[in-house]
């Protein structure tokens, strides 16, 4: 699909999904709002409420095995084990399964840059270069232009799944899906009224979110954490945890099963393949940031097992040092085909690392200056993208949330997703489609409850496959 198409043909009734085209952006906001409303004729807002597994739905175990292809073989059982722990951990790792399901659901045919795996654990806080803490999507491995509803449905359903996991009542879990979608709809309307450059430079600051908290004690704790995060030097703080050595040789510590050096390679050994791959990465940075990176010397590289869905992909951590011993850690993540591509179309980028980096730059208000991509020089020539490791990244422990915390967080995530979609799409058309009533909110909540049921069935199928030996699993203590 070509995102530079410039047709002025009517949107309603188009035979194939479209991406927001330059000519539509050139129309006045009011006209674009009305075009969004017209799309309700072909795809009513209430049509999003239904989830029913089609007769030819792929076996979830088969999709698990499909997703295993190309991963580091010895780590695959660990991936299965992490996903089998609960319906919530399964959901986090089953982006491929849900992409296949979402492709069978109604959509308004509007394409924006979407996350592709926008569950509630893939949002969080991180620092801008000025040390302001902002809130946004922070994992975009699957990003691709696609139907905006897919992100909304995956996010809203994740709140029902997480709510059940935390023992929140069914009614309250559904309410979090409503709150998330309502925030998305209402903030999309707000963003549609903003001037173009104002929207592009807008970010959701942590202090603004905290100020909306209703619990004074929770608010005070949040403010203290933000101030602490601003004062931290993350690389220097994590250095003693991840690295060791002398003035002459510094290297990354092995910490199984999370971090380890590849078989046959000693800590502190940087092989020629890694050096060549790293040099190619530097060519994708701006000249200014490449110059900054050249102040550091590459000292070591080790495999780092991350998350749930990414387990088994080729992910690394790099240690770099200045001559004065200042550390810099970079995360190297394999960029595979997006799970969305069979359903939304192939990426326009030859390197999937570039696909991911483009998603970060488009969907996040501020991006890591060391974002870049490369291709491995090994036999498999995998695609990779790089960024700083834990650059003042504030993770949210949703597993500890009760009803009030989950409701508050649902509103935050809905707002953040709306901003990301407004940056990569047309907020006026999206707002026109959703409208001012709660029809869309309630429909997405109904879908979320039904899909949470489906997710539990799929999780049970995975556990059964493990018991029967169809899937090998390794469980952590």
Structure at a glance:
The chain has 477 residues and is an alpha+beta fold. The protein is 45% helix and 13% strand.
Features:
single chain, about 475 residues, alpha+beta, 6-stranded antiparallel β-sheet, disordered N terminus
Total number of strands: 13
How many H/I helices?
19
Distance between the termini: 46 Å
What is the average of the pLDDT values? 88
Assign an overall shape. Answer: globular
Which residues sit in consecutive blocks of at least 5 with pLDDT less than 50? 1-18
Structural class: alpha+beta
Whole-angstrom Rg: 22 Å
Output the strand order for the largest sheet: 8-9-10-11-13-12
Share of helix among residues?
40-55%
Strand content: 5-15%
Largest sheet: 6 strands, antiparallel
Describe the structure.
The protein is α+β, with helices and mostly antiparallel strands and 477 residues long. 45% of the residues lie in helices and 13% in strands. It is built from 19 helices and 13 strands. It has helices spanning 22-25, 29-38, 60-68, 76-84, 87-93, 95-102, 148-165, 170-192, 196-200, 206-211, 216-231, 234-242, 272-282, 287-293, 341-344, 352-363, 403-424, 427-434, 439-467; strands spanning 18-19, 110-114, 123-127, 133-137, 144-147, 243-245, 250-252, 259-260, 297-304, 315-321, 327-334, 372-375, 383-388. Helix 2 (29-38) crosses helix 18, helix 7 (148-165) packs antiparallel against helix 8 and helix 8 crosses helix 19 (439-467). The termini are far apart.
């Amino acid at each position: 699909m070509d995102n530079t198409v410039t047709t002025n043909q009517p949107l309603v009734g188009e035979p194939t999904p479209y991406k927001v085209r330059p000519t539509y952006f050139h129309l006045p906001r009011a006209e674009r709002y009305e075009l969004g409303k017209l799309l309700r004729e072909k795809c009513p807002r209430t049509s999003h409420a239904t989830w029913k597994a089609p007769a030819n739905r792929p076996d979830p175990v088969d999709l698990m095995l499909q997703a295993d292809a190309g991963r580091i073989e010895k780590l695959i059982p660990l991936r299965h084990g992490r996903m089998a722990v609960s319906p919530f951990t399964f959901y986090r790792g089953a982006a491929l399964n849900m992409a296949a399901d979402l492709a069978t659901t109604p959509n308004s045919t509007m394409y924006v840059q979407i996350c592709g795996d926008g569950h509630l654990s893939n949002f969080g806080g991180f620092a801008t270069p000025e040390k302001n803490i902002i809130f946004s999507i922070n994992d975009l491995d699957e990003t691709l232009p696609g139907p905006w509803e897919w992100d909304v449905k995956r996010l809203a359903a994740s709140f029902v799944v997480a709510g059940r996991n935390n023992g929140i009542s069914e009614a309250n879990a559904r309410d979090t899906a409503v709150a998330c979608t309502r925030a998305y709809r209402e903030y999309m309307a707000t963003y549609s009224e903003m001037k173009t450059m104002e929207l592009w430079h807008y970010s959701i600051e942590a202090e603004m979110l905290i100020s909306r908290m209703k619990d004074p004690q929770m608010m005070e704790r949040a403010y203290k954490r933000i101030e602490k995060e601003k004062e931290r030097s993350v690389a220097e703080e994590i250095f003693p945890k991840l690295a060791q050595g002398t003035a002459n040789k510094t290297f990354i510590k092995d910490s199984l099963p999370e971090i380890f050096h590849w078989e046959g390679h000693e800590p502190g050994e940087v092989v020629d393949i890694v050096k060549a791959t790293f040099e190619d990465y530097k060519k994708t940075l701006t000249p200014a940031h490449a110059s900054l990176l050249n102040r550091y010397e590459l000292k070591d590289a080790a495999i780092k097992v991350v998350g749930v869905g990414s387990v088994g992909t080729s992910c690394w951590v790099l240690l770099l040092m200045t001559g004065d011993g200042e550390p810099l850690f970079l995360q190297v993540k394999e960029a595979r085909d997006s799970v969305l591509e069979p359903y939304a179309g192939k990426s326009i980028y030859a390197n999937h690392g570039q696909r991911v980096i483009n998603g970060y730059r488009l969907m996040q208000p501020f991006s890591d200056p060391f974002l870049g991509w490369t291709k491995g020089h090994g036999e498999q020539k995998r695609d990779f993208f790089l960024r700083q490791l834990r650059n003042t990244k504030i993770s949210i422990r949703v597993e500890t949330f009760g009803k009030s915390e989950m409701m508050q967080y649902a509103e935050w995530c809905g707002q953040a997703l709306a901003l990301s979609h407004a940056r990569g799409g047309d907020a006026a058309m999206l707002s026109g489609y959703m409208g001012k009533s709660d029809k869309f909110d309630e429909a997405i909540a109904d879908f979320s409850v039904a899909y949470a049921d489906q997710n539990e069935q799929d999780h049970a199928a995975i556990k059964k496959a493990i018991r029967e030996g169809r899937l090998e699993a390794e469980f952590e203590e």
